[in-house]
Design a protein that fits this description.
mainly alpha; globular; 12 helices; single chain; about 300 residues
Amino acid sequence: MSAGAEASESAATAAFWRAAPYVFLLLWSGGYTFAKMGLAHIEPLTMLALRYGLAVLALLPFLMRRATRWPVSARHWGAIAITGFLIQCVYFGLAYLAMKRGMNAGTTAIIMALQPILVAALTPVFTGQRRGGAVLWLGLVLGFAGVLLVILSGRSLGPSPWIAVLLALAALLGITIATLFEKWHGLKTDPVVGGIVQYVVGFAVLMPAAMLTETMVVDWAPELVISVAYLVIGNSIISISLFIALLQRGDATRISALLYLVPPLAMAVAWAVLGETVTALAFAGFILSAAGVHIVNRQTARAGAA
């Protein structure tokens, strides 16, 4: 390969990684709306089992047509499986149950936007890096106060709000622990292999759970087909692959800094697709939560540069 070709390939690779966080952000933000749309025609665990099964089938051709980097140790295989359980079963499973209980897509996104705050608070436990100070904890308090305002706004949550809130908070904890776990073990995983293992784990856990707790009746309305297609391609294949790849590149702080943009984007998509309304109190809660996340991110960045 000539020097010019190498430089061109290097520039293209750099451009890809600069764009990757924003592609992740856009696709991730839309996932809440399309999940909510699909859940009108299918039960949550059944939907996730269907999504994961289709995702495995979609990824298999890539596994066969490329030079695959397989994990070489049981520890590595176990790490992929644990991350898969935390993201695909705990995070998505509980978030879908929360939306099925009546929580709006925008409200779910607001709660999940607190993930950077929890990552900052729990990083010392997982990595030993001490991050504290009054300003950091001010950010934590503001973030949780913002979520509390959203909860108290009433109309944003729909029926059975407190059950939905508890499910959503548990989902938030799942994605937070998955992020910290990825940072802690530091193992690099081929995105196709990682995706297939994660979705096999998700399918193996949630399919039996769906069979035991749900009717598994599926209404194949056009909205469900569109929803599943988006979730399989946009979320399960592209978004999750980018999320794991960016974490493994050490870009966790960059992703966290972007996550506070998920709620307004999710609210905009939910308004356009589902006609969801946003109350003034809920919007105020989002602003407060975003301010808290911004403070935490800024303090984290300063601590990292010190």
